[in-house]
Structure formats: C-alpha cells, structure tokens
C-alpha cells in the first residue's frame, strides 16, 4: 500500500471536497480531517478510503459515504451541543469515531457481533475511549443510558418510537426513513412532547433489521 493514498494530505483533499459540496461546519470538517477512515476498512480497500463513496465492510454491510457522515454530524451540531449521542448501527465504527470528536460520549449499538468486535478493536487502537459499544438490536435503543442529546440512525427503515422516547428535551434524531423504495434523511427535534420533523434529502443506507447475528 503506497503511503500517499492514506496520508493526512489525502484526507485533507476529502475535507476540501466535502466543503465544496456544502459542508460548512468547521467542527465537522475538522473531525473528518482527524479520523483516519482507511483504518475503518479492510486493508485491501484502504487506497479507496478517501474517495467520497460507501465501501463494503463484510456481512453485506457498508461504511457510509463521507458526505453523508458529514451531513448527519452537521445536522446534529447545528441543533444541539451533544454531550451524549446514541448511534444505531456501528458497522465499521467510522461514524461513531467522527461523532466522538464532537461529543463527550458516544453510545453505539450493532446487531452483528463480528462487525462490532472489529469496530471495538479499532476504537481501542485509535485511543477513542469515549465510545461505549453494545451488541444489541438497536431498535430498542439503549434505555439504561437515556436520555440522549442526539440519536443517529445509520440504517434505513421505519424509525421505532422507542428511540424518540429516549431523546432529551431539545434533542434531535437524525436518520434515514424508508418510503417505499426510497429513503429520506430526516431530523426530528423534540420539544417536550412535540416532535418537529424536517427532511434533509434522499440517501441510501443498508436496511435496519431485527434480532442479533
Ligand atoms: N455507521 C456505520 C454504518 C454501517 S451500515 C459506519 O460508519 O460504518 C449500518 C449498520 O447498521 C450495519 O452494520 C448493520 O448491521 C447495522 N444495523 C442494522 N439494523 C440494526 C439494528 N436493529 N440494531 C443495530 N444495528 C443495526
């Protein structure tokens, strides 16, 4: 593997590209510049880690596209100062690592044990000690750690009401909602018992599934 393809300079090109595509928040751009995305994919794919595309991570799952990771992180930061963030769908661990740069603590859940073990190893190697992981069906959230300032759902489907109930007052949920064959990224803001819904554009995520593997 040529070192040039995974260098900090290569990562800065990705940051500039995301800025050109409309990501404005300097905290988000700094977080993308900080996290070595090549460490979140198989070595055979590391030369492609700083392209703005989703990549396979095994078990039929994908690491999200950097633009979408940036967009979701920006959607959180423009609404709250996130102390506690819950993620549904650890996958490679990349989105959690980006969130860990801008939040005090990240709680991330994954239903496929094999993916979670690999992600945990990466968090350990990169010294990301503010990420807590759990091998559970994330459709139930993480009631023991609720409420959360932000909940980020990184698989597409019908977002369960259990998650909205675990939002702090003023908190936001960002995630893809399934509408027939299409997915729409939404942000839902809680004010007391009111939930305000905004649409942030079309996205493509792997599906939310039930149960553990
Ligand atoms: N955030 C990840 C994206 C991974 S793809 C990253 O940055 O790499 C989405 C992940 O959600 C997959 O790993 C999939 O197994 C997981 N997933 C799907 N349904 C889930 C559920 N009910 N609970 C927890 N994880 C789930």
Give keywords.
single chain, protein-L-isoaspartate (D-aspartate) O-methyltransferase activity, 213 residues, binds S-adenosyl-L-homocysteine, seven-stranded mixed sheet, transferase
Structural notes for this entry:
The chain is an alpha/beta fold and about 210 residues long. β3 (about 85-90), α4 (about 95-100) and β4 form a beta-alpha-beta unit. It has a single domain, classed as 3-Layer(aba) Sandwich (Rossmann fold). It is built from 6 helices and 9 strands, in the order ααββαβαβαββαβββ. The chain starts with 7 loop residues before the first helix and ends in a 10-residue tail after the last strand. It is globular, with a radius of gyration of 16 Å. S-adenosyl-L-homocysteine binds next to β2, α4 and β4. Catalyzes the methyl esterification of L-isoaspartyl residues in peptides and proteins that result from spontaneous decomposition of normal L-aspartyl and L-asparaginyl residues. It plays a role in the repair and/or degradation of damaged proteins. It is found in: Cytoplasm. InterPro entries: PCMT, SAM-dependent_MTases_sf.
Cα radius of gyration in angstroms: 16 Å
Point out poorly predicted stretches. Answer: none
Report the mean per-residue pLDDT as an integer: 96
- The level of helicity is 25-40%
Q: Which architecture name does CATH use?
A: 3-Layer(aba) Sandwich
Percent strand equals 25-35%
